[in-house]
Design a protein that fits this description.
The protein is mainly β. About 15% of the residues lie in helices and about 55% in strands. It has a single domain (about 20-120), classed as Immunoglobulin-like (Sandwich), CATH 2.60.40. It is built from one helix and eight strands, in the order αββββββββ. An eight-stranded antiparallel beta sheet has the order 5-4-7-8-1-2-3-6, with no helix packed on it. The chain starts with a helix and ends with a strand. It comes from Paenibacillus amylolyticus.
């Protein structure tokens, strides 16, 4: 009886661990921008959110911002009117690959910076 209980316990534990959500946080900073992102993934689906913040001093002169994530998981890019904080998210995606870092390229007013975003 004890052996059966141990086997049942292990099966329940394996089932719960298979359904668990893996959450990874990433951050990075350059001279004028900071980027943070959270990636959630389980065996069947994944999602992410991100935040890009302007750290520079010339906010009044910026009209638009182009950004592009160079990542195995996050395929976001866009051209948006300037705001000191740019946010985005996506849900219902294929499960993610584990990655230690990725790059976000940001262009504004003829300037370009690449932010290296690393896993916490």
């Amino acid at each position: 009886m004890r052996k059966i209980m141990c086997i049942l316990f292990l099966l329940v534990l394996l089932t719960l661990s298979a359904c668990s959500n893996n959450v990874s946080s990433y951050t990075g900073k350059s001279e004028n921008w900071s980027v943070s992102s959270t990636v959630q993934s389980n065996n069947s689906t994944a999602s992410y959110d991100y935040e890009i913040k302007y750290l520079g001093d010339n906010a009044a002169s910026i009209e638009k911002v182009n950004y592009k994530f160079m990542s195995e998981n996050i395929h976001a890019k866009g051209e948006v009117p300037f705001n000191t904080v740019i946010r985005g998210k996506a849900e219902g995606l294929s499960p993610f690959l584990d990655e230690e870092e990725f790059i976000v390229q940001i262009e504004w007013d003829g300037n370009t910076e690449k932010v290296i975003v690393t896993k916490k």
